[in-house]
Request: fold
Amino acid sequence: MYAGSTPPLRKNDQMDPTPLETNEPRAGGEGKREAVSRRAKRGFVWSQIGGVLDYGFYLVFAVLVARAIGVQEFGLYGTIISYASLGLILAGLGLERATIVHAAPLAENNPSMMRCLMRRFVAVRLGAGVFVATVLFVLAGPLMSYLSQPRVGYLLGWMGFYIVSMGLTALFMAYFSARMDLRNPKIAKASMQLVNVAGAAWIYKNGGSAGVVLFLLSATSVLTMLAIGWMSRGIFSGQEEKVDFVPVRSFCKSQTAMEFITFVTGKNADIILLNLMLAGTIQVGFYNVSSALVLAISTMFVAGVGDIALSATSVMVNKGEPDQLRRAWRFSVKSGVLLTVPYMVFAFGIAPAIVGTLLDRTYLPAAEVFRIAVMGQIMVSLLGGGSNANILLSSDRHEELRNIRVVMGLVNIALNLMLIPRWGAAGAAVATAIAAVGRVFWEYREVGKLQRFPLPGRTIISMTAASIVATLVVVWFPFNRWAYLLTTGLGFTAVFVFLAWILKPYDEEDAPVIRRAGYPFDGLARYVCRDS
Reply:
């Protein structure tokens, strides 16, 4: 994205006398690189811990709520959340990604400019959120009543608190990701998810409806915003230095379009279309269950990568080190395959047992929808997933990324319109899987135009094969329900780890990356790297 070695928004070389992190070296050279490395490691560790807790609690929450309120109410709950997610995108204006891509280099070199950037972002996000919330409160009821869904309109009209608070929380979290300082925010966010789990347990015991669940989420989202906003109060104190917002506006326009198209190609748009085309059926509930399971399984073990990877990628592009960028991308793809593909393959193999045990037999048709969705996610991981998008965003190719997602969004809508009337929730899952795989493959082709980034074929093939073998070994275990899930899960993990140790997914080029991570990761190099 930036040809030189200075940050994109930096106006001069004067350093802020009050740096954000006074305990880190501020001078250039090797000391600064070590400071970035230490912060990246610390940020990754806490992001991963928080992510595992976040998505783990989310899975427990979704299961308890689905069991408590039934298929149709769970479908209604998913529909409201999907509409609210669209509101979040409209109020988001691409500011989270802009914070990470543009603020991460400033966190290194000019904190006063970073403060200016963040103050403007917070003001814009708050104003946009209030506007969207007001529009929903006024128009959601009449519009959804016109579509013969008055209850959807009533519940949606009160989701303004959720939209405003979730939007500000996401922006504050992006600020901490740009600084690679995530310990306290992640702990706070996971704590609120635990409150959601406690609330879901109360609903499971005492009964409830979609409206009760949505009230719970709105209340905890406001509390989360207040807690993380208080941690971010440093944004509003200290000197600020004006920045050039022209490149930021251009980025935000493209990012807003991309986020909207990502919405169209994802599960939220599928749920909305299912609700509009098959209103009153249990198909929405089946799809909502399968998407919740896929989200937890595919994201939990890579939750620490996400924004930290984009921050690190932006810093590397800013420094103009293409070979280092290639190695980082290659390592990221391998790690994504290693951490996501195995358990998705395992989940594909025992999908009926997962759905039937976590929920009940009324949800069993969701198992096939789950299998379709998880297969799509496996293919996305094998093709590089978010690593490709990070390279394009950081290399000022956001317009190409936007165009890819526009085209694949239209493809997804067309496929949904054709397949939902025929196959219901399964048709929506097929449409989304095709669009997602096509999008990631196209992004990979665009990355290849910047620099040669060959996919690590040996790792992809060997880890996928090991996942299939480990699944086949345990899928025949003669147990039922929870005993089956526990024994097959432990057995799969043991067999896969043994095969991964033999096959070794990393090589000598990856070993320095693992060793630089420091304790306790450095000791893993000899077990997971060939010829290291």
Observations:
- The chain has 21 helices and no strands.
- The radius of gyration is 23 Å.
